[in-house]
Design brief:
Elements (H helix, E strand, L loop, with lengths): L16 H13 L10 H10 L3 E5 L4 E3 L7 E7 L2 E6 L5 E7 L4 E2 L14 E4 L3 E7 H10 L4 H26 L2 H11 L1 H6 L2 H8 L3 H13 L1
Antiparallel strand pairs: 1-8, 2-7, 3-6, 3-8, 4-5, 4-7
Helix pairs in contact: 1-2, 5-8, 7-8
Protein name: Cyclic nucleotide-binding protein
InterPro entries: cNMP-bd_dom_sf, RmlC-like_jellyroll
Organism: Marinobacter adhaerens (strain DSM 23420 / HP15)
Length: 219
Amino acid sequence: MLGENNPDIVEQDAAPESAALLHGLSRVFGIRLAGHENDPDARFLADLACLFHLRRVDPETALEKHDKPWANVYLIQYGILRLFREAPSGKVSVHHFFSEGDMVWPVFGRTRTVRNTLCLTTVTPVTTWVADFSAFRSAIQSHGEGLWPQFALALTEEIAELTSMREFRKHTMPARDRYRLLLEEYPELVKRVPDNQLASWLGVVPATFSRLKTGAART
C-alpha cells in the first residue's frame, strides 16, 4: 500500500523535535500538557526547554568522566547510558543503566566537584537532550523555593532504592536467581546491553554470566 500511494493511507506531519522535549519534561516533572501557554506549569516547562539542545551520540562515547565536575543534565529520547565507576586497576563497576524517558543528572553533591568518581557513557547510539546542569538547577529554583528539593529528592530516592536492592540481592541471593530476576525485570536491557556490562551490573565475572545465560537457555 505504501508503494502504491494508496488513498486510504493518511499521511500526517511529524511532530517537531521540540514537542518530544516538552513531553519528556512534562513526564519527568509530572506536569500534564493541557493548559494554556500562560499557565504557570506551561511557562515552567517552556523555560526549561529553552536550556536544552539535541545531541546524537555514537556508542561508547564518554559524556561525563571521573575527576571532573559533572557538567550536564540529560533527557534521553533514544538509547541507553550506563553509570559506572572505574578503579585505577581498570576494573569497572556498573551502577545503573538509563534508557528512553529517563533524566540523568549529578544526583550526589560530590559528583559536582573534582572529587567526582562517577562516569557516564553511551551503550548504544543515543539521541539525548542536553542542558547545562547549573543553568537547569537555577531555572527550577527561580520558579519556586521548594521545587528543586522536591525534584532532586524523587530521583535520589529512586536511585538509592535500586542500588540498595541490587546490593542486598548480591549478598543474599545466588547468581542464578539474580540472573533470573534480571531477565524478568529488565528484558529490554538484556537484548540491548553487551553481556560484559550486564555481568558487571549483576556482580559476576563474564565467564559466570555466560554460564548463567547458557543454563537459562536450556531450561
